[in-house]
Amino acid sequence: MSMDYIPLAGVIGTSVVHSKSPRLHRYWLRRYGLRGDYVPLHVTDANLAQVVKTLPKMGFVGANVTIPHKVAAIELADQVSDRAILIGAANTLIFRDDGSVYADNTDGYGFTASLRQSAPGWQASNGPCAVLGAGGAARAVISSLIEAGATEVLLSNRTRPKAEALKTEFGSKVRVVDWVQAGNVLEDAATVINTTSLGMTGAAEFRVPLDGLRRGTVVTDLVYTPLRTTLLQQADAAGCITVDGLGMLLHQAVPCFERWFGKRPDVDDETRAAILG
Ligand code: ATR
User: Which residue, by CA, sits nearest to atom 2 of ligand 1?
Assistant: First the structure.
């Protein structure tokens, strides 16, 4: 079948200049010899609805959605996946042939897929999961942990009411731990996840006491600039199994690429190198 257009995708947000997604999707397109392109799309709040209506008319097959449009994207879609509803935000739009817009969220999938790939044998049910932070990223992480069979999520956030709100939403498997006690739950945890911005280049330092970390605990950081955060370095030193945040970024893009361009792409060392290079 010959196509009379080049399928396009892109990332919609207000600070997309440094997004790694264009590089990733273009790398996969090249690697698999597929027609298509992926571009950063700077879109303000005021223009979001019009842009989402217009993109399908100019060859776009879909788009990723990032800050600050992840919640609004749900409202704009004609259909929304169950997992996007559960997370309360979408990171992916699919423009269907019939003109309708489907919203999905692959962040939680990317999170668990990354752990499964980089920490073989990892299971959400291996023991309590300690989640630091209660923002947008934490919602995706908690919902995917529970979906993957976590029996207990120990949730700690500087602003406690935000953690309490997530407990109300996600239910009795979530136990809120005061931020000043966050270090104390690490000893009981089989999995530790930092979803806060602490440790990111340009943000405040990660200061949760880590002496409770035990050998064999799986520790992952959603922060990937730098790749080896203070948390991951200290966890390495304590004999933990560490998984960096780049994996989640790469894996969340897999179902997007597959839906838009028709091929399920691989996440391997070559993919990582292409994005880091
Ligand atoms: P994201 O979508 O990446 O999760 P977010 O919704 O802005 O971004 O959430 C940022 C998270 O980092 C929050 O959990 C935030 O804690 P608060 O809810 O108390 O704001 C956390 N965070 C950011 N800066 C922090 C700091 N200096 N100390 C502790 N937590 C911090």
Answer: 136
Tens-digit pLDDT profile for residues 234-254: 999 999 999 999 999 999 999
Q: Are residues 119 and 144 in the same domain?
A: yes
Question: Is 144 contained in some domain?
Answer: yes
Task: Examine the pLDDT at 202 and tell me if it is beyond 80.
Answer: yes
* Number of domains the chain is built from: 2
Kindly state whether residue 91 falls inside one of the protein's structural domains: yes
Q: Decide if 17 is inside a domain.
A: yes
Query: Does residue 2 fall inside a structural domain?
Result: no
Distance, CA of 172 to CA of 151 (rounded, Å):
9
The pLDDT score that the predictor gives to residue 4 is: 83
* 271 Cα–ligand 1 center, Å: 29
Q: How far is it, in rounded angstroms, from Cα 43 to Cα 68? A: 10
Q: Which residues are catalytic?
A: 70
Cα Rg of the chain, angstroms: 19
List helix spans (H) across the chain. 21-31, 48-54, 72-76, 82-87, 107-118, 136-147, 160-170, 230-237, 246-261, 269-276
| Tens-place pLDDT, residues 133-173 | 999 999 999 999 999 999 999 999 999 999 999 999 999 99
Instruction: Express each pLDDT in 11-22 by its tens digit.
Output: 999 999 999 999
Residues 6+ apart with CB under 8 A from 66: 11, 12, 13, 16, 19, 91
Q: Please say if the pLDDT value at position 1 is more than 80.
A: no
223 and 189 in a common domain: yes
User: Which residues line ligand 1 at a C-beta cut-off of 6 Å?
Assistant: 133-138, 157-159, 162, 195-198, 204
Distance (Å) from CA 239 to ligand 1 centroid: 27
Mean of pLDDT values over 217-223: 98
Residue 208 is part of which domain span? 108-244
